[in-house]
Amino acid sequence: MYHTIVTLVEDKPGVLNRVASLFRRRAFNIDSLTVGRTETPGISRMTIVVDSDEVSIERLTAYLYKLVNVIQVFDLTDAPSVSRDLVLIKVQASPEARTQILQLVDVFRARIVDVTTNSFIIEITGDEEKIEGFIDVMRPWGIIEMVRTGVVAMARGSAAAVNNNGSAAAIQTYALTAETAA
Length: 182
Prior knowledge:
Number of helices: 5
CATH class of the largest domain: Alpha Beta
Shape: elongated
Low-confidence stretches: 162-169, 172-176
Radius of gyration: 20 Å
Strand content: 35-45%
């Protein structure tokens, strides 16, 4: 089963390497890994999708907490959440095929972000099923190149990411401590 693990980490050099090395040492294959800054300066958010069973994920979470720069880890798999993936696809677009491709782009609520005489670059955002469906529909037209961002996910609701003791205060406390230490 695929699990979506969200990890808040210090925004420091080498953190991504340590997290990826942990997965490698424990023989987990990362299906998707996305890293970006958060609303709190000095903290980055990693969204990691991995195929594993529940027991292994619990162990992996414990291992992640042992890493020095890891602040918080939570599994969004069973939580109500929103997840998205962004894809750019360069497709061959002969003059005869343009109208049909544009109709498909419209049906999937994608966007054309670049046009040349022989191709389109199409941007599409959505869940895994929508993305895979769009890729399958574009294949017959001739996909020249494709790039994906990886899955990003966020728990539904008005609360911030909550740690195991039920409070988001740990993140704010960390941010204040990091600012005063600098």
